[in-house]
Amino acid sequence: MPHNPQDSNRHITLIGAGLAGAVLATLLARRGWQVDVYEKRGDPRLKGYGGGRSINLALAERGRHALRLAGADDAVMAQAVMMRGRMVHFLDGRTDLQRYGRDDSEVIWSVHRGELNVILLDIAERAGAHLHFDRGLASVDFDARTATFTDPRDGSTHTAGFVSLVGADGAGSALRGAMASQTELGERTEFLGHSYKELEIPPAADGGFSIEPNALHIWPRGRYMCIALPNDERTFTVTLFLPNEGDPSFATVRNGAEARALFERDFADAVPLIPNLERDFERNPAGLLATLYLDSWHLDDRAVLVGDAAHAMVPFHGQGMNCAFEDCVALAEHLDRQPDRAAAFAAFQAERLPNARAIQAMALENYLEMRDRVDDDDYLLQRALERA
Ligand code: FAD
């Protein structure tokens, strides 16, 4: 049972037990805060991720710093796969590894989203956070400081008091919607006009990886591209990025047969690697890509947003989660340092909003670079000179 939060000046209520929610819960619980976390979905540790799709994320040093502070780095790294650089797949089948740094001290890591979430939830609970699953935030009474949650299994509603709410409930944040009814957040969403679909490269016949495991594979093709990140289970998650309009686009590549024709023409060396191309293409949903800008991330001392809820971005810099983890470190520090929560939230926003804006811009720029420039001869020469 959650205790009465009004009794405590070190109580906080988090909405969302995804990546940011679980890390922030841990950081605050480790600092002695009483933390209640409400998550819309069921407990993924009960259902398991075994049969589900593998979706992976690039974890960088920025994110690992937060994981170390949360005591989660060792457990996460035990299932991470090192990516030393980009493996560019040219149209003629040639490949070229472009290293991220001079040696293996400058690399990024591929982590399985589902496994990462499970590890972080275990660590949050062990740190003392109270996790409440099947509790989707439905409405907030900011005057009474009560939040109402719906249980998606039976539609029942549950109300809990709060001192402050932290929205770690992702790009479609319900808390952000509730805050917007009280104050002007300056919210705008810019859609990229491109979407993505995930496909899978299974293990090779001998059970190993079927292509170089320690790389982020890219098939750049000008206006569009494919990427593939390795999973510790010896598979790769392939993501196809296409415009929504034009040719080719998700308007012209509409089914498995059309996807196969596109791959045979433009990603020929990937075709034998993806035996279930048609099935994956037709079964997996297309995801939209957008950047979310807000001018304000908090409502006085009553609510604040972190992670995608505050600054969702396109995934081309692989920094959305890493940036969300940095938010968690910053917010935990400001809350600890500054007993006036409105001041702590304002200081958090002042520190992090300019950073988030810069990373959002870099993520948009990187789409042009990844799909267009990494196979450009001048660009390759310049990179080679930089590395020399
Ligand atoms: P989420 O991970 O979305 O978690 C939100 C949580 O809140 C979920 O558990 C959800 O169920 C819960 N929730 C939602 N609504 C409610 C509600 N009403 N009440 C209670 N709970 C609720 N980032 C990287 O750093 N590296 C990458 O390589 C990378 N690749 C990406 C590839 C793709 C295709 C995409 C789309 C994103 C990628 N990202 C990457 C971005 C990354 O996924 C996000 O930035 C990250 O998940 C943000 O974490 P979050 O905790 O803020 O939100």
TrEMBL record:
Pathway: Cofactor biosynthesis; NAD(+) biosynthesis; quinolinate from L-kynurenine: step 1/3. The keyword Transit peptide does not apply. Its EC number is 1.14.13.9. Keywords: FAD, Flavoprotein, Membrane, Monooxygenase, NADP, Oxidoreductase, Pyridine nucleotide biosynthesis, Transmembrane, Transmembrane helix. One of its GO terms (molecular function) is monooxygenase activity. Belongs to the aromatic-ring hydroxylase family. KMO subfamily. This is Kynurenine 3-monooxygenase. It comes from Lysobacter niastensis. The chain holds residues 1 to 388 of 458 of the full protein.
